[in-house]
Predict the structure.
Amino acid sequence: MARRKIVAGNWKMNMTPSQAVELCATLKDLVVSDEVDVVYCVPAIDIIPVVEAVKGTNVAVGAENMYFEAKGAYTGEISAEMLVDAGVKYVIIGHSERRDYFKECDCLLNKKVKKALEAGLVPILCCGESLEQREMGVTMDWIRLQIKSDLVGVTADQVKGMVIAYEPIWAIGTGKTATTEQAEEVCKGIRECIAEMYDTDTAEAVRIQYGGSVSASNAAELFAQPNIDGGLVGGASLKADFGKIVNYK
Ligand code: PGA
């Protein structure tokens, strides 16, 4: 069975609540698609107004982060249950900015993935190598390590419903996209890693996105690759171009 494409915007720390509502209105007609799942991953404070703004449309809402504990004394954190109750369907876990600036390690991310799944959220699990790692020739070793560590204790059925985003760190926000060949090669490698860890059914079911300077001009070629099931889009998700990325064909 063919995998359905999924294009998710990662708004990062952009858009006040009122700007967020305006952006939803701007994008509303542009992101209509029967073929592609469309997600806006938005800052926590924008979740409630964005869920309201996209009601009745084809857009689902995602969070950019969450904590793995159910509740309690974790000042500043947001739980999976809170996200679900607010109408969130997806959650980005392990974005390289969180791994780097907020020192999130794979053992923490593994707990977050498991908690998100248990709560009924779809994790968009990010992985990716630095430029130094690519130049050293250890890209696939590094990514396999991330995937294997982040999925400890996650079942095949759970993985089938997940999204994995391959985002080379050197391509994020730099305007420097991985070549189509580089992106496809790693996404294929991730699928092979899932096949080894689980089975081919699971590997064929899991959706793998490419992220890193995805734009209206490169989306069609990237998304046409056999192992690339859509994109995680930063900068270009904040403007009308996002509609062109969703309707890339
Ligand atoms: P970018 O960001 O599209 O601005 O490169 C992608 C991401 O960080 O998810």
Notes: The first helix runs from residue 17 to 27. The mean pLDDT is 97. Strands lie at 5-10, 36-42, 59-63, 90-93, 122-127, 163-166, 207-211, 230-233.
